[in-house]
């Protein structure tokens, strides 16, 4: 497995704080619900926008 390499800089959407287990759990609950019925084959990044840094 390849490790992730993140760009340098503050995480833009949450003042530099990493996500919590609750953030991930909320996403999993949403994906398991009927509300996500139109989401298929889409990567979902729970990183507070860190992946958007250049």
TrEMBL record:
A Pfam cross-reference name: adh_short_C2
Q: What is this protein called?
A: SDR family oxidoreductase
Going by the entry's taxonomy, the superkingdom of the source organism is recorded as Bacteria
Gene source species:
Rhizobium jaguaris
């Amino acid at each position: 497995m390849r490790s992730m390499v993140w760009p340098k800089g503050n995480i833009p959407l949450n003042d530099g704080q990493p996500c919590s287990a609750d953030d991930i759990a909320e996403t999993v609950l949403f994906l398991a619900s009927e509300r996500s019925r139109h989401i298929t084959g889409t990567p979902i990044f729970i990183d507070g926008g860190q992946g958007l840094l250049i």
